[in-house]
Structure formats: structure tokens, C-alpha cells
Automatic annotation (TrEMBL):
Keyword Magnesium: no
NCBIfam families referenced in this protein's UniProt entry, alphabetically: small_GTP
Any one cellular-component term (Gene Ontology): mitochondrion
PANTHER family: RIBOSOME-RELEASING FACTOR 2, MITOCHONDRIAL, TRANSLATION ELONGATION FACTOR G-RELATED
Main location: mitochondrion
Any GO BP: ribosome disassembly
PROSITE patterns on file: G_TR_1 (PS00301), G_TR_2 (PS51722)
Protein name: Ribosome-releasing factor 2, mitochondrial
Binding positions for GTP per the UniProt entry: 28-35, 93-97, 145-148
InterPro entries documented for this protein: EFG2, EFG_II, EFG_III, EFG_III/V, EFG_V, EFG_V-like, EFTu-like_2, G_TR_CS
Length: 788
């Protein structure tokens, strides 16, 4: 349903040039102001005519009921808008909560650049570090938000960023304040535009009013900051850009203020695209300050689709180039359209909707497409552009665009991470494509992190079981980081997710949106089992001519061999290993009617089911294992139906697993990376609790404001030096930080701890620190139960 705040949808009648497209994501720690900033971007671009706020639950991108009631982003939302008339920005607002990290993972797979939002009061927080690492291959700009808050520290935050994220910075603007004689406080009023040498001052009464002024020498304080910021910016860029150095010495005669803004922007852009620097801007989104310069920076410094590295292909020998007009050109075929499905949702009106990014060619509405992941061919319906929860129909999606496929035929045929192949010119031109090289193509694989919490799901009556299973399938299709397993002994259905909040949201949707009549149990930690040693190989054959030899191995035992093809089973770090056949090559020498992809899909499905059935200790699903199909298998030449392969291979995997004794299996539990920030006077009590009641393994204890603690590595030493030499405006919070909290230094405790011991830790931690500390957990891996 259209909302009045969205106004009329802008239809892009003509295709936007690739060089004018920006595919960006907003990433940050929870409550840094991502959605608030996004809302202001939409307002100033003209996309909406009224500014919504998170607290009122009326923002465009947070449209789910749970997002409105909780005031947090739960699922990533895509929206497109124009800026400076000629640029088209495709923006994805991502969640900040750690439980929804998969939303960030899959969004990053289709983005070309990122805007990282930082809280000027909190600085660089733990989740910020995590999403920064997840997006390490993408150019970024940083927006230091909440500069209007008490305790905001621009320079302190920049310094933390340099050292913790190991990046050089380019100060695009810096804050300036007005002294209030009544309250004796500094009021954030605007920014110093370092590149254009202006001051920008926003009106608190009128969000559309900006006062732009030249910086006069008579304003000594601001002029001195401008000069110092420009000097530091040019010296930093000079380490990368020799052309800038020559211009500075020859044309500008050694005067930092004489380098033209356009020339400086070009240098910043080159350094940003090569991830040498991170441009820094600041503002206060809630007060509507600083958002327009951020939008300018997005188009000035972040890449277009033709300025990014080649997408990751499964065939490293397939030639790929970047064409300035058509984007990625794969296998020198201009008619080859390759898209990545990165998200699936169910719309109450349109049904299944698949979000895609087009990497090559043109995807047309009504085309026949091929899912190279599943081997299925089918016809799609209409294509739409998404504006949060509002749809705009289009005839085609071009290279570099992010849109949505619809149509009843796509249900159950496309999942997150699938590659979609089509012919750009013909409705059904798949036969014209290279069947050996182009149709098997897969692009930018998406890895699903393993779930760590589980709940049992039971139908209220036997008659509700079918509808319960349908609802669960819908839930998992939309969010693959949720997993469904069945306990073979009890018959219970188990739903697993990334955290307690993740499961709470899933339960809400299951009951209130999908209307499943179910009973849901208590949250528990998701344990797994693994193999301690490989099984012996076992062979099974049939009179019809089917023959397989299969073994199961722990994959930590050895790396892949040259004659093996490893196929991920999608979760639990499990794989199918297809050993190279003694005779038949799937590309050069394939004589069977059944495609090789269909054979692999059948073996994949049977392996998933068999490994999910679990080990012999407690029946937990197997983790970190691989089903190896040896290269002496046999098939009838005329085989077409994979059903017999499914049942045969599944029973064989179960047979080889049953040959092992219980002692060959080990129980695993989720282990978390823990970072605790606590005052020195509270550290003893926190450490005692961690090492005693929590069974934590302490890795390090550092001073928070020693800039990343013990800087023993070359990289740490380098960026400590960069931080010390970087000019930063005066910042009182840096001096306060040096004094620590209430006269005592803040300490950072890093540890690894079993997840089961951290359930309901929040209340205990608040009691130990009187609410003065903070902690953050992230999934580290699976560890043997009882191991330190």
C-alpha cells in the first residue's frame, strides 16, 4: 500500500549511465543512526516529502511491524533515488544487531561501496568492527553521526577508526560549534567543508535551509582548522597520488589552499576506490545536519559498477572484462545476462519476490531463465524496482541495477545465493548460450553462518502439521540463516537461528504473519556432532546399472586435492566431494541424458538429509564433515530421474556412518568471541565471573584508550603512527578519555567462551559493573564440549 510520505514514484524513463550508478549499503553498530540517516537521504533527494523518525515508527525502510514497535532494523531494505539529477543511488539499509548478521552478509555481496555510520559518543563499537571486516573488499566513506549529543567526540572517533580499522582517513569536513553563554555549552551548528573551503550552517527550524559561507582569515579559529585539515589531507593523498604532489608543487606553488576542489576530489576518489583512504564526514542526522554533503560524497567518492573488481566466478578460466557501457562482459558474450539472487521474500499481493543484482547483460520481463545452482529452467514474470515496501514495474533491469523478479513460476525455484542465467535479446535464448561454459556459471557465493540457538516447534493438532511445515518452509526461504531439523527419536521439529532475538522475531512472524497453529518451546543452545576419523568407503550397486562408492570424512583432516570438486551443503560447514571420474568428464566427455548438475544436486540433497540425521552420541546434526563420492561411480546412459540416486546415496551415507562406534563421534558446542569493556575497579569481579562461572578462555586484557592495546605487529605500529601524525580538530572528549571512567582506566577483556554459559548474562554483567560496562559477542566457531 502506498504511503502518502512517499509521494509519486519517480519512473526512470531512460536508462542511467553505468558511471552514474552507485550501489551502496549503510552499515554500522546498532543504534548508530543508519535508518535515521537513510530517511534524511530520501527526504533531501526528493524521494519523500515528509521526514519520518525511528521513535515514531514511521520511517520508509523500517516498515515491518516488529521494526516499528522495537525501533530497530530487522531486515535489509532496498530503495532507489536520484541525486544531483543525473546520479542514481541504489541504497540498502542493513540491520545493526548481531543476530541479523546474515542480512548484512548477503547485502554486501551485491554492493559496490559502503557508508559506515559511527556514533560520535560511543566511537568505534564492536559490531562496527565486525561489519567493517565483512566489507573489507569494498571502498567506504564514514559518517560520524550524533555530533549534537553530550560527549560527542569527532577527533576521538576518527583516531579510534584509524587504529582499530587500520585505515588512513581523508577529512572531507569537520565540525564547528557555537558557544552558548547561558549554558556554557558548545552547540553543534555545522561543518567546515575542507574540500570546497566553505562553512555549512543548518537551520534548526527549517531542515531545508543551509547557510553557505566563505571562510575568512579574520575567523582565526575556523581558518586555522581549515588550513590544517587541508594540509593533512593533501599530505596523506600525496603518499598515493604523485600527480597531486606535482600539482601542489608546480601549480599551487606549495600552498595547500590553492589546489582546486575539483582536482582534490579526483585525487580523493582514486585513493578511496583503491581503499588507500576512507573519507570522513560528520553531522547529526536527527537534527538534519550534514546529510547533503554525505550524499555528495557518495557520488563523488564511491564506485560505479564499472569501477569495481570483477565478480567472483566459479570458473576461473572464463574470460571477463569490464565494458564502460555494458558493465561486466563474461565469456565475450554481450547477450549473456548473469544475475545473483540475494534475497527472497513473500509479498501478500505479489507472492514470492526475488531480489537480484544484474552483473552482466539485460534481464527482461517475461524471459525464460536458467538457475545454474539447481539446473532448473523456467519463465519469470514482471520485474520491479523496490522502494522499501513500494513496487515500481519496469520492462528490464540492466547491468549494475538491483531489482526484483516476480511471477508464480519462480516459487520454490530460486533461493538466496542462486545464480540466474538468461539471454539478453531473446525471450528463450538459452539454447544460444554456451552450454558447457555459460550455463554452469555461478557468481559471488553467499555463505550462511551456522545457527547457535534452537527452539522446538510442534503443531497444536495433527491436522496443523502440514500448514506448520509450509509456514516453516516460507520462513527459511526468506531467511536461510534459520534452519529446520527433525529429531528422529522424538519426532520434534527444531528451528535454529543466530540468536535469541533472531528466534523471537521468527516466532512472531510464524504466529502473527504466517498464522501457523504451533506451540513453541524454550530457547536452547544448538549443539552439533563431528567425526573424529574418516569412515571406510562402502559401495552399493543395483541391477539397473547404478553404482556408488561413498565415504564420510572430517574436513579438518586435509585440504582439497587437485582431483576433487568441493560443493558446499549450505550449512554446518559440510561439503559434498565429487572425485574426478575415471572416465567421464562433466565438460569434455559426458554421455548421459541426465545433466551432471542434476546428478550433483541429487547427491547434495541426499547428503544433507543423511548428515542432518546426526551422530551417535546425542543425535545432533553432523558438522564439519564431507561426503566423498569416489570416482568409480556408474550410471545407465539413459537415466533421467534422479529419485533413485537420491534414495540410494542417502542410504549409503547412513550405512557408512552407522559402521562407526560412538567413540568416533564428538559433541560440539558454539563458542563465542567476547569483548568486554569495563572500568578497572570492576575488572576483578568480571574476570572472576568469566573464568569461574562462564568457563571463559581469556585471550588479552588491554587499556581501551591505548589505541588498540598492545601494538606488537607491524601493521599496528604503522597505524599508531598514522593516528599520531594525523591532524585532528580540538576535542575535549580525548582528554576525558585519557582520564578514564571515574578516575580509573577502562579495560578491554577479550575472551572465548561457550555460548551456553552466556545465556542471560546481561543481568549478571550489569550487577557486576553497576551498569557502567558493555560487552559484545560474536560467533567464533564450534568447539568440543569440555575443551578449554
Amino acid at each position: 500500500m502506498l504511503r502518502s510520505s512517499l509521494g509519486l514514484l519517480r519512473t526512470y524513463a531512460t536508462r542511467t549511465e553505468l558511471s552514474k550508478i552507485r550501489n551502496i549499503g549503510i552499515i554500522a553498530h546498532i543504534d548508530a543512526g543508519k535508518t535515521t540517516t537513510t530517511e534524511r537521504m530520501l527526504y533531501y533527494s526528493g524521494k519523500i516529502n515528509r521526514i519520518g523518525n525511528v521513535d515514531q515508527g514511521d520511517t520508509i525502510t523500517d516498515f515491518l511491524p516488529q521494526e516499528k514497535s522495537r525501533g530497530i532494523t530487522i531486515q535489509s531494505a532496498a530503495i532507489s533515488f536520484k541525486w544531483q539529477k543525473e546520479f542514481k543511488i541504489n541504497l540498502i539499509d542493513t540491520p545493526g544487531h548481531a543476530d541479523f548478521t546474515f542480512e548484512v552478509i548477503r547485502a554486501l555481496k551485491v554492493l559496490d561501496g559502503c557508508v559506515t555510520i559511527l556514533d560520535a559518543v560511543a566511537g568505534v563499537e564492536a559490531q562496527t568492527e565486525k561489519v567493517w571486516r565483512q566489507s573489507k573488499t569494498l571502498p567506504k566513506i564514514c559518517f560520524i553521526n550524533k555530533m549534537d549529543r553530550m560527549g560527542a567526540g569527532y577527533s576521538r572517533t576518527v583516531k579510534e577508526l584509524i587504529v582499530k580499522m587500520k585505515t588512513r582517513v581523508a577529512l572531507i569536513n569537520a565540525p564547528f560549534f557555537k558557544h552558548d553563554p547561558k549554558t556554557q555549552e558548545q552547540i553543534f551548528e555545522g561543518v567546515i567543508d575542507v574540500v570546497n573551503m566553505k562553512t555549512l550552517k543548518w537551520s534548526l527550524e527549517d531542515p531545508d535551509k543551509i547557510e553557505v559561507s566563505d571562510i575568512e582569515k579574520s575567523n582565526e579559529q575556523i581558518f586555522e582548522q581549515l588550513t590544517s585539515c587541508r594540509a593533512s589531507l593533501i599530505e596523506t593523498l600525496g603518499e598515493y597520488d604523485e600527480e597531486l604532489v606535482e600539482h601542489f608543487l608546480d601549480e599551487a606553488e606549495g600552498d595547500y589552499l590553492k589546489i582546486p576542489a575539483a582536482f582534490l576530489k579526483g585525487s580523493i576518489r582514486k585513493a578511496t576506490l583503491n581503499r588507500f583512504v576512507t573519507p570522513i564526514l560528520c553531522g547529526a542526522s536527527f537534527k538534519n545536519i550534514g546529510v547533503q554533503p554525505l550524499l555528495d560524497a557518495i557520488v563523488d567518492y564511491l564506485p560505479s559498477p564499472i569501477e569495481v573488481p570483477y565478480p567472483e566466478l566459479n570458473d576461473s578460466n572464463l574470460p571477463i572484462t569490464i565494458d564502460s557501457k555494458n558493465g561486466a562482459l563474461i565469456n565475450r558474450n554481450r547477450n549473456l545476462c548473469v544475475s545473483l539472487a540475494f534475497k527472497v521474500i513473500t509479498d501478500p499481493i505479489r507472492g514470492i519476490m526475488v531480489f537480484i543484482r544484474v552483473y552482466s547483460g539485460i534481464l527482461n520481463s517475461g524471459s525464460t531463465v536458467f538457475n545454474s545452482t539447481t539446473g532448473e529452467k523456467f519463465k519469470i514474470g514482471k520485474l520491479v524496482l523496490m522502494h522499501a515496501d513500494v513496487h515500481e514495474e519496469v520492462n528490464s533491469l540492466h547491468t549494475g541495477e538491483i531489482g526484483v523478479m516476480t511471477g508464480s513460476s519462480i516459487a520454490q525455484r530460486i533461493s538466496t545465493g542462486d545464480t540466474v542465467i538468461s539471454h539478453s535479446l531473446k525471450k528463450d535464448g538459452l539454447k544460444s548460450l554456451d552450454r558447457k561454459k555459460e550455463l554452469p556459471l555461478k557468481i559471488n557465493p553467499i555463505t550462511v553462518p551456522p545457527p547457535v540457538f534452537s527452539v522446538t516447534i510442534e503443531p497444536r493438532t495433527l491436522g496443523n502439521r502440514s500448514s506448520m511445515e509450509d509456514s516453516l518452509n516460507t520462513l527459511v526461504t526468506e531467511d536461510p540463516s534459520l534452519q529446520i531439523t527433525k529429531d528422529e527419536e522424538t519426532g520434534q521439529t527444531i528451528l535454529s537461528g543466530m540468536g535469541e532475538l533472531h528466534l523471537e522475531i521468527a516466532k512472531y512472524k510464524l504466529i502473527n504473519e504466517l498464522h501457523a497453529a504451533v506451540e513453541i518451546g524454550k530457547v536452547r543452545v544448538s549443539n552439533k556432532e563431528t567425526l573424529m576419523e574418516s569412515t571406510s568407503s562402502n559401495t552399493i550397486s543395483t541391477d539397473a546399472g547404478l553404482r556408488f562408492t561413498i565415504s564420510v570424512i572430517p574436513i579438518s583432516e586435509r585440504p582439497p586435492l587437485p582431483n576433487e570438486n568441493w560443493i558446499s551443503l549450505g550449512s554446518d560447514n559440510n561439503y559434498l566431494i565429487m572425485e574426478q571420474h575415471e572416465i567421464y568428464d562433466p565438460v569434455k566427455n559426458w554421455k548421459f541424458q541426465m545433466p551432471y548438475g542434476a546428478l550433483v544436486n541429487a547427491l547434495t540433497s541426499s547428503s544433507i538429509v543423511a548428515l542432518y540425521k546426526g551422530g551417535k552420541v546425542a543425535g545432533y546434526p553432523l558438522y564439519d564433515c564431507a561426503v566423498k563420492v569416489h570416482g568409480n561411480w556408474e550410471l545407465p546412459l539413459d537415466i533421467q530421474n534422479p529419485t533413485e540416486i537420491l534414495s540410494l546415496s542417502r542410504s549409503l551415507v547412513l550405512k557408512v556412518l552407522s559402521s562407526l562406534e560412538e567413540t568416533n563421534f564428538a559433541v560440539l558446542e558454539p563458542v563465542m568471541s567476547l569483548e568486554v569493556i569495563v572500568a578497572q575497579k570492576d575488572m576483578g569481579a568480571v574476570l572472576q565471573d568469566l573464568t569461574g562461572a562462564r568457563d571463559a578462555n581469556i585471550l588479552s586484557i588491554d587499556d581501551e584508550h591505548e589505541l588498540n592495546g598492545s601494538a606488537t605487529g607491524d601493521s599496528n605500529i604503522e597505524f599508531l603512527s598514522v593516528a599520531q601524525n594525523q591532524f585532528l580538530p580540538p576535542d575535549m572528549t580525548m582528554k576525558i578519555a585519557e582520564l578514564g571512567n571515574e578516575g580509573g582506566h577502562m579495560k578491554v577483556i577479550r575472551a572465548r567462551v561457550p555460548l551456553k554459559s552466556m545465556v542471560a548474562y546481561t543481568n549478571k554483567f550489569r550487577s557486576l559493573t553497576q551498569g557502567r560496562g558493555s560487552f559484545h559477542m560474536a560467533y567464533y566457531g564450534m568447539g568440543k564440549v569440555g575443551n578449554d
